Q: What sequence folds into this?
């Protein structure tokens, strides 16, 4: 596979589940079983697209590949793009392949659920958002994927938002019980606090570097890091702000409070969010920023 095909596969890996999730209710109106299979097909195609990137690991000297699409042409140019390198290939395959396996399990687990189309939409949107996060070539599109992952996790953790007594977690009395809607909202708010701190760090980095593109940041690091270091404590401040986002997503102190209550969602949601993907997004971001740290 050449560079162009690799870039197209990267785009397809997250656009297929994100855009396809909007079609699930439409397919469900026609045939419910077809909608279930369509949801599985979206995650399968996403996994196939990421697997097509694996052969490039055998030729690391040809990497990285980068593809950009201009979003806004203003005094500040805004691009959305993908970055295919060793790190993104490995992480994308972990996300897509494990997520597909979880989706296969969900097919039986969610059988008979009256609102399972909503579940399929959230799951595929989550998978696509996570792949957008790990394949982005700049901080802006990474942060979009980062926030979409948080929104999707809110919908999945609070899937039983009607708060029927059977779906409460915690207890027994006198210990408090937690309702699914409360658990989803807590996850959104707690991780959101870390996200906003990380966004502040991104803004400061852009002020000094003049770019959000990872490759450009790597190449010009000796210049903008030197300028940043001229302000006492600025490098440490930006480092801590950027780490706040990964700490929130990975449920590390002081952002750990949301994780136990996130078990309020369906069982496969815990497998997807806690074991396979979302809590690993922090690990990925730290790995992506290792040259700066």
A:
């Amino acid at each position: 596979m050449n560079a162009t095909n690799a870039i197209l596969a990267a785009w397809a890996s997250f656009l297929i589940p994100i855009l396809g999730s909007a079609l699930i209710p439409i397919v469900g109106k026609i045939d419910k079983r077809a909608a279930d299979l369509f949801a599985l097909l979206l995650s399968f195609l996403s996994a196939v697209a990421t697997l097509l990137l694996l052969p490039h690991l055998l030729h690391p000297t040809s990497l990285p590949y980068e593809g950009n699409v201009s979003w806004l042409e203003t005094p500040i140019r805004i691009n959305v793009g993908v970055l295919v390198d060793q790190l993104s290939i490995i992480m994308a395959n972990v996300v897509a392949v494990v997520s597909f396996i979880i989706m296969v399990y969900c097919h039986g687990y969610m059988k008979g659920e009256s609102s399972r189309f909503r579940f399929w939409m959230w799951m595929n949107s989550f998978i696509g958002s996570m792949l957008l996060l790990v394949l982005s070539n700049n901080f802006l599109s990474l942060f979009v994927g980062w926030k979409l992952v948080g929104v999707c996790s809110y919908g999945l953790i609070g899937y039983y938002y009607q708060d029927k007594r059977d779906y409460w977690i915690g207890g027994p009395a006198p210990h408090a019980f937690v309702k699914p809607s409360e658990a989803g909202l807590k996850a959104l708010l707690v991780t959101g606090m870390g996200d906003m701190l990380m966004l502040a760090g991104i803004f400061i980095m852009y002020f000094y570097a003049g770019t959000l593109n990872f490759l450009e940041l790597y190449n010009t690091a000796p210049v903008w890091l030197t300028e940043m270091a001229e302000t006492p404590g600025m490098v440490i401040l930006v480092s801590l702000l950027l780490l706040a986002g990964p700490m929130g997503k990975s449920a590390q102190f002081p952002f750990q409070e949301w994780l136990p209550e996130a078990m309020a969602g369906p069982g496969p949601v815990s497998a997807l969010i806690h074991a396979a993907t979302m809590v690993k997004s922090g690990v990925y971001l730290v790995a992506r920023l290792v040259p700066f740290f």
